[in-house]
Specification:
The complex is a heterodimer of chains A (358) and B (164).
Chain A lengths: L2 H10 L6 H11 L17 H29 L12 E4 L4 H9 L4 E7 L4 E2 L14 E10 L3 H17 L3 E8 L5 E9 L3 H9 L3 E11 L1 H26 L5 H33 E9 L1 H4 L7 H55 L1
Helix pairs in contact in A: 3-10, 7-8
Chain B lengths: L3 H20 L2 H18 L10 H29 L19 H9 L2 H12 L4 H8 L3 H24 L1
Helix pairs in contact in B: 1-2, 1-3, 1-5, 2-3, 3-6, 4-7, 5-7, 6-7
Classes of the chains: A alpha+beta (358), B mainly alpha (164).
Chain lengths: 358, 164
């Protein structure tokens, strides 16, 4: 008998269950009414979903958390650094009009800061100017950025030339060349040319920061002048009394002492008046010329960039944590998998043995 | 979605035939068939038609039930052998199929359970190779090899009987 014959005979003699068994199975199913099944009510997933779903969920949660933290971190607590670009201007305490009004009312000090990147655009001229006719101490500090070290030297030279052309002089100068080239100049320019000087010096490069402060000296000067007049009047008065012959020697000696004292005071007052005039006649301008490299400026990032950076940072940390967890859990997982595989293998062998011997 | 009753009605002969080939014992096969359908009835809610046919699902339960019985039977035999009890279980002589020649019946009984199993699935129940492979937990190639070997062995036995 060949294989096809055998197959035909085997198929022709297919076993059938006896009626008793059939009845037994029917009895098993008949008493229970058919339950209406709702396939939609039960979520059936492939086995791989039980691994992929948690992994995907972890990824989504991780990326989501990173995004949220990044977005929050990118917008909160980001303060501009000490040096920013491009320039913006801050006028402390009010508008330019307010500042001028305040100046005319002789405030002790008024100052204007220009700090790039946060405030309004930096103007090329002085944001406030000294009031003509009043004695004021004007100080200006500005930082300009030039493209490279070659431009530092030329900008420093231009600043010196400019100062001389405005009738001023250099109080100090420091120029560093090389990779991190930088120049720092302290210039004295006539106060009536200060506005012009700051405007022209600002044009030497890109303004990084600018500060102008004005301290009013007029009241102090007026007080000095008044005191000097009073002292001079007293000296004249004492001189007149000394010329009269009706004084006792003691009175004469006392008046002499008093006159000497007043003369010393007058001399001191005159010196102070001269000094105040000197301070008020020249403005001090300190200019720093820097390069992006010496400045160490990192271009300001947009909020999106900051958020992405923060999110990436969080993701990296999440990755590190996941890696640590994996390193710790991997041996245990490997052990578990090996146990499962060994059990399966054992059962397979056992089944084969059972089926081979039965 | 078919009802369990309809599935049981349509697959009863297949499950019984498979178990009869596997155990070569009709009363035992009937018992195991009943047990299989009881288990299947309890697990019916878990059945997912997208993962396979109801017949394959029932055959998998039948195989598991039969293997459990083989295990317990092997333990029983070992226990009995330890205490020196003679074989109490009398082999069943009822024919595996209806209308088999005595030679085929005898040759079939000489095959191992594993060989009879693959014959039952691939030849008698005409389960395709892929489904059989999934059911037995082996590759389709291994199924083909096992079937070929079983048929060759059966043929050999039959030839031997003819010569005798």
């Amino acid at each position: 008998m060949t294989s096809p014959d055998l197959i035909r005979e085997l198929q022709a003699s297919r076993p059938t269950a006896r009626e008793a068994l059939r009845a037994r199975v029917r009895e098993l199913t008949s008493p229970v009414p058919t339950v209406e099944r709702r396939p939609a009510s039960r979520l059936r997933l492939p086995r791989s979903a039980f691994v992929l779903a948690p992994v995907a969920a972890a990824l989504v949660v991780g990326i989501g958390a990173a995004g949220v933290i990044g977005a929050l971190g990118g917008s909160v607590g980001q303060r501009p650094g000490p040096v920013r670009e491009p320039g913006r201007l801050q006028i402390g305490g009010g508008s330019a009009n307010d500042t001028e009004k305040a100046q005319s009312a002789s405030p002790p000090v008024s100052s204007v800061h220009g700090s790039a990147a946060t405030l309004g655009p930096v103007t090329q001229g002085t944001p406030i100017a000294p009031t003509p006719g009043r004695a004021q101490q004007v100080d200006a500090t500005l930082t300009v950025k030039v493209p490279d070290s070659d431009h530092v030297s030329s900008a420093a030279q231009d600043a010196l030339d400019l100062t001389r052309s405005l009738g001023g002089h250099v109080q100090s100068a420091s120029v560093t060349t090389g990779d991190e080239a930088q120049a720092t100049l302290t210039l004295r320019v006539p106060v009536d040319r200060a506005e012009d000087a700051v405007a022209k010096l600002s044009a030497l490069g890109t303004i990084v920061s600018q500060q102008v402060s004005i301290q009013d000296l007029q009241e102090h000067l007026d007080a000095l002048v008044l005191r000097a007049r009073s002292v001079r009047a007293q000296i004249v008065k004492i001189g007149a009394r000394l010329e009269s012959q009706q004084l006792t020697p003691e009175q004469r000696a006392a008046l002499e002492l008093r006159r000497q004292s007043l003369r010393r005071e007058l001399s001191s007052l005159r010196q102070e008046i001269r000094s105040t005039h000197g301070v008020a006649s020249f403005a001090t301008v300190q200019i720093s010329v820097v390069t992006p490299r010496s400045l160490g400026v990192v271009p300001a990032q947009s909020r999106l960039d900051r958020s992405l950076d923060k999110a990436l940072e969080v993701l990296v940390w999440e990755g590190i944590v996941a890696l640590v967890v994996l390193l710790v859990a991997a041996p245990l997982a490997l052990l578990g998998l090996t146990a499962v595989a060994a059990r399966r293998l054992y059962r397979r062998h056992e089944e084969d043995r059972l089926l081979a011997t039965s | 979605m078919p009802t369990f009753a309809s599935v049981a009605e349509s697959c009863l002969d297949d499950v019984f035939g498979y178990l009869l080939y596997l155990t070569k014992d009709r009363p035992l096969a009937e018992d195991l068939t009943g047990e299989t359908f009881e288990t299947a009835f309890r697990r019916w809610r878990r059945f997912d038609p997208r993962r396979g046919t109801a017949r394959a699902w029932l055959l998998a339960i039948a195989r598991s039930t039969a293997l459990d019985w083989f295990r317990s039977d092997a333990r029983r035999r070992r226990r009995e052998a330890r205490v020196g009890v003679a074989e109490l279980h009398a082999p069943d002589d009822t024919p595996l199929g209806e209308g088999f020649s005595p030679g085929l019946e005898a040759a079939l009984r000489e095959l191992t359970a594993g060989e009879r199993e693959v014959l039952a699935l691939r030849v008698v129940l005409e389960v395709d190779g892929e489904e059989t492979a999934r059911l037995l937990g082996i590759s389709p190639t291994a199924v083909s090899t096992r079937l070929h070997r079983a048929l060759a062995k059966l043929e050999e036995r039959m030839r031997h009987d003819d010569v005798a």
